[in-house]
Amino acid sequence: MEKLIMIKYGELTTKKGNRDNFISCLLNNIHNKLKTYDVKITKDRSRMYIESKNIDEISEVLTNIFGVHGIVIAYKINTNNIEEIKKASLEVLNFKNFETFKVVTNRALKDYPMDSMKISKVVGGYILANTKNKKVDVHNPEEILRIDLRSEGCFIYTNEIPGIGGYPVGIQGKGLLMLSGGIDSPVSGYLAMKRGINIDCIYFESPPHTSIEAKNKVISLANILCKYTNKIKIHIVPFTKIQEAIYKNNASNYMITIMRRMMYRIAQEVALKNNLKVLINGESIGQVASQTLESMSVINEVTNMPVIRPVACLDKLEIIDIAKKIGTYETSILPYEDCCTIFLPKHPIIKPVLNKCISIEKRFNFEKLIKEAIDNIEVIEVPKKTDVDIENLL
Q: Which CATH number fits domain 2-162: 3.40.50.300, 3.50.50.60, 3.30.2130.30, 3.10.20.600?
């Protein structure tokens, strides 16, 4: 018997005419993630197979690749002879410690002379006859032996490791994630990637009002998100002059609204320049003043690009649960302020008026400031080591 990894696609199999493109994208992503391993990968329209001496390590890597629904460490025999299947099934179960079991067969090979129920019954009977103190329990067995009959051979296994599902990253093109140092935006980036969107990130810094630690915190968050993709480019925008101009021109309780409108203008220009199709952010409806429906509408008015808000309808506890699951939470709660928290008015407007925003913006030459900011963007590509040891900051 040959031990290998069998990957199940899940949602990809619903794509019909586009299935081959989705599977090829997944194959490319897996190749990139496993490039440090000696592997042989083959695929068909229903399964992918990985042969390697590092099965356990590779299985762990695969759990963080979007598009993988299930990961199976299987034993393959290159025949569909029922006698060989019986012997191999017994050998696989001999690796296990159990008292009750059942056999489940998937007969993808439809012209096989026995149906699935018959195969399961025959193999189960053979196991009972060749073991001691074992019983069949079809309702609550300790072990389930699975037999997958396919044209390329028979695959026998007991456990399936859940993948994270979704679509392969990149199959839907690229978007620009507005990445702050908070909890919500990294979760939005993760959820966007799960729907097949590859991401660049944009971060607005305002030195000396924001610290180098705040910048490194964002770089660290992008590094964590790289666990679910390959590389992420971060566009770091110098935002100090724009924020100071807004503050000096008596924006008052409109400060955050005007600031967000400037961010959207810059994000759109960066996205267009880099052929990114959508903007992505961590706005959650009603969570803060700039995220009421009225605020979103007024802020969104400055862009004609699609804006995706993956966490818009989640409450904070739901977002935190996802952040903990994907490994961004502990970094997100580090106490370094981003530019959204400086110059914060005591009572930010929750129902801004568009004409009022336009009137405030006429008080200063924001077009010139935006151009200057875009011309001085710093671009960093991760994964890379940050200048700060995040472990020592936790």
A: 3.30.2130.30
